[in-house]
Write a structure and sequence with these properties.
- The chain is α+β, with helices and mostly antiparallel strands and about 80 residues long.
- The protein is built from three helices and three strands, in the order ββαβαα.
- β1 and β2 form a beta hairpin.
- The longest helix has 13 residues, at about 45-60.
- The radius of gyration is 13 Å and the shape is elongated.
């Protein structure tokens, strides 16, 4: 996850995946279906982003795995 964004319900998703989901399914949390007004109600999760950076800094062997797992287009949300 390179750009974690958090919905008003508190769950974080990759920014572009969440944005794509909201465009297709409407402004609701992909897991809880809790509605919100628009994508603008979602905020960057800087704590999670910093935690990921720290994890990769302390475990450089994970970088290849991390980069391979960041393709949000492979994520499928139930609608």
């Amino acid at each position: 996850m390179s750009e974690p964004y958090q919905t008003p319900s508190g769950i974080s998703y990759e920014k572009e995946a969440l944005k794509s989901y909201v465009e297709k399914a409407g402004a609701k949390d992909p897991i809880t279906s809790e509605p919100f007004r628009s994508f603008d109600d979602c905020v960057p999760n800087t704590a999670l982003k910093n935690s990921i950076k720290l994890l990769l800094k302390k475990n450089p062997a994970m970088i290849d795995f991390y980069e391979a797992s960041c393709d949000w287009r492979e994520v499928v949300f139930a609608e």
